[in-house]
Every structure is written in C-alpha cells, then in structure tokens.
Design a protein that fits this description.
alpha+beta, 2 domains, eight-stranded antiparallel β-barrel
C-alpha cells in the first residue's frame, strides 16, 4: 500500500513538472510574440504636424503653415538592455507672415536633422497584450534650421535670412492599430513642443 501511495505521489509530481514546463513554454512564446513591434532592421516612415517651438519665431510672426514634416527610421541594434536603438533622418517645413502698412514679409523655415532614439520594450514589465502594441521611446535630435524671407520690399527686412544649429530632446510613443500602422505623439523641448502624426512599419 505504501509503495502504491509513493508511486502515485511520484506520478503526480512528474505530471505537475510537465504541466509547469508547458506553462513556461507558453509564457515564453507569448512574450516573444509581444516583443516583435520593434526589432533590428525594422524600417519606419512617419508624417507629422507640430505645435509650438523655438525654431519658428513663435512669439513674433503669424502662423501660416504649422511645422509639417517626415521622418525615416531604421532600428540598428539587437536588444540592448530593455530595448533597441534606432537612427533616423527628419525634415520639416513651416511658414509665418509679418506685415504692416509699409511692408509684408513671408518667412520660410526648413529644418533637417538626424536623430537617435532608444525604444523601450514594455513587455519586459507588463504581460497585458496592450503593451505589445506600444512603442515608447526617447532620443536626441541634432540638425540645422534655415530661415528665408520672401518680401516685395528689398530695402527693408525685419529678420534676415539665417542658418542656425539646433538640438532637441524627444520623448514619445507609437500605438499600433495593426502590424504596420500606428499613431504617434512626441514631446520636444526646443524645435517643436508637440508632434502628432502617423507611422507606417515598412517591414516585419
């Protein structure tokens, strides 16, 4: 009787080990599928519209065209820590007017730059499926801002053409509605204060 009881306990223990191993495999498979939003060699194309910013003389001229731009990003590393590193090129345009009874000027602002960003994998901390659709990131942008004036008055100008270097810290995120389409929002601290737009993932 004792041998039978021991055999049953051993059998139950063995069954529990198999069940636990199966659960671990399922969880690992699930988490690995959650982490595929961002991986090495992914390409992302974005279009955005911006609000505010120091690069567009926001305090002095009437807004004609808000900052609108495009960005192209490539994820260049395997997982580093809890995320991946991406590099991108970015370009944007904005326009403002300034006028009076004596003259009327139009100012064009072109911004081009390069950006590096670290993309955090939230599935490292949360097992809710919603986090597999989120792509939060933070980064640094460096570039140049060009201001060009168009005015019928060649004698008088309120702000001559100029080129200045710019830098900006970015904190943002994307939410993917499907495998390759997302909405994005970014907070900046210099060039533009807020960008909103859409992102397309060009490969898996």
């Amino acid at each position: 009787m004792m041998q039978k009881t021991y055999f049953c306990k051993k059998l139950n223990y063995s069954t529990m080990k198999k069940q636990l191993a199966l659960i671990v495999v399922v969880l690992l498979t699930t988490f690995s599928s959650f982490g595929q939003i961002v991986s090495k060699n992914n390409h992302f194309a974005s279009a955005f519209i911006g609000l505010g910013g120091n690069a567009y003389d926001v305090l002095y001229y009437n807004l004609l065209v808000p900052p609108v731009g495009v960005q192209y990003e490539v994820i260049v590393t395997d997982k580093v820590g809890i995320g991946h590193v991406g590099v991108s090129g970015i370009a944007s345009y904005a326009a403002r007017t300034y006028g009076s009874l004596l003259y009327n000027s139009l100012y064009h602002y072109f911004t081009v730059g390069a950006r590096g960003a670290y993309h955090f994998d939230l599935t490292e901390f949360f097992d809710d499926p919603i986090f597999s659709k989120l792509d939060p990131y933070a980064g640094l942008m460096l570039g140049m801002n060009f201001r060009m004036e168009t005015s019928p008055d060649d004698f008088y100008t309120t702000a001559p053409n100029r080129v200045i270097p710019i830098a900006d810290l970015i904190v943002g995120g994307r939410y993917f509605f499907s495998d390759n389409l997302a909405v994005m929002a970014e907070l900046g601290f210099n060039v533009t204060f807020l960008n909103v737009g859409v992102t397309m993932k060009l490969n898996k």
